[in-house]
Each structure stands twice: as C-alpha cells, then as structure tokens.
Design brief:
By secondary structure, this protein is mostly helical. It contains one helix and no strands.
Length: 38
C-alpha cells in the first residue's frame, strides 16, 4: 500500500496542476475575452 502511495503522490502533484490549468484556462479566456472585447 505504501508503494502505491509513493507512486501516486508524484503523479498527483504532476497531473493535478495540468488538470487545473485545462479546467481553468477556458474560463479565464472566456471571461477575459468578454472584458477585452467591448
């Protein structure tokens, strides 16, 4: 079980920011585009 945790922890720290970027960037671009383009 500890071996699984040691494998999952680095993968989680690597992939979590990627998933956050993929999920947040479209929202930021959409709202930012509305503010930038009158």
């Amino acid at each position: 079980a500890r071996l699984g945790v040691r494998l999952v922890l680095p993968l989680g720290t690597c992939y979590l920011p990627a998933f956050v970027l993929v999920g947040v960037m479209p929202v930021i671009l959409a709202t930012g585009g509305q503010f930038l383009i009158p």
